[in-house]
Amino acid sequence: MKNCLKFLKTVILAGGRGTRINEETSSKPKPLIEIGGMPVIWHIMKIYSSHGINDFVICCGYKGEMIKEYFENYSRSRSDVVINLKHGQIESNEKDIRLWNVTLVDTGLETMTGGRIKRIKKHVEGETFCVTYGDDLKGVDITGLVRFHQKQGTLATLTVARHQDRFGLVSISDDKVTSLTEKPIMNDIWINGGYFVLEPKVLDFIKDDSTIFEQEPLNELIEHGQLSAYKYLGEYQPLDTLKDKIKLEELWSSGKAYWKI
Predict the structure, then answer these.
(1) CA distance 136 to 132
(2) Do residues 30 and 16 touch, judged by C-beta distance below 8 A?
(3) Is residue 258 part of a domain?
(4) For a designed S-S bond to 51, which of 68, 142, 160, 203 qualifies (C-beta 3.0 to 4.6 A apart)?
(5) Is position 261 within any domain?
(6) Tens of pLDDT, residues 55-92
(7) Secondary structure (3-state) at 184
(8) pLDDT for 4
(9) Is 23 a member of any domain?
(10) Nearest to 53 by CA among 62, 61, 44
(11) Cβ neighbours of 78 (radius 10 Å)
């Protein structure tokens, strides 16, 4: 299956403003927030790459030029550089060779998620492709996800995760606390976990730049019985606030980063 996956592309939505974590995004786009010294988008690409997918289309928007600069300078920033001042030559001895092919597309500053996907149509036309968010770290079994999608035969597959309450639940009886559950998992409630697999016909469900992919297109696919759900039962930690970033850093530094390859 991994040999088959190498022909797939992954589209990464990396154009949002990330206003809820303004402490970081005032100076950089959210996908470039660093966890363990590397941008979150790098961690996400590593997940896909470990399953044989090395072809990426990145939908840029807010501070997109910084994402482009990051990948333009990637090899040099991750290598030993030898400079011959006499002959004006610069040689890069790469330590961290990647097979990644990265296409960076300016999909607009105000474009919604559906519009961003629609704008990269020419890069995925006629192909099954993956889509994910540029800030979403989950240890999804991409091979299993694609295999599930192919078996279902629907136009789209959405990874779903169990709802995790961000606040503890307190049970009370006669004004006494009887139990306290910190961030409980709601076993019967599922949320959009990102990590999609889409057929090219899904693009026909997207009208224009104003289309929010998670609304009209997905609802239409549901009406047509064309949206499957792949259950992700692993851990996940959002990256919405500075507190979330600190938690992700703690997981990384303690060796408990569930997404680490």
Answers:
(1) 7
(2) yes
(3) no
(4) 142
(5) no
(6) 999 999 999 999 999 999 887 666 666 777 776 666 65
(7) coil
(8) 62
(9) yes
(10) 44
(11) 14
Residues spanned by the domain of 140: 2-253
Order of strands across the sheet that contains 156-164: 101-106, 55-60, 9-14, 129-133, 185-198, 156-164, 227-232
Asked if 57 and 131 touch (Cβ cutoff 8 Å), the reply is no
- Across the chain, which distance is largest between two alpha carbons, in Å? 84
Distance, C-alpha 71 to centroid of its chain: 17
Angle at 82 between CA 79 and CA 86, to 5 degrees: 160
The token pair at 98 is 């990647």
Supply the pLDDT for residue 174.
74
Alpha carbon distance 100, 38 (integer Å): 16
Quick one: which H or E segment has residue 191? strand 185-198
Number of folded domains in the chain?
1
E-strand spans in 85-184? Answer: 89-94, 101-106, 129-133, 156-164, 169-173, 176-181
CA angle 230, 140, 108 (to 5 degrees): 90
Structure tokens, 167: 């606040």
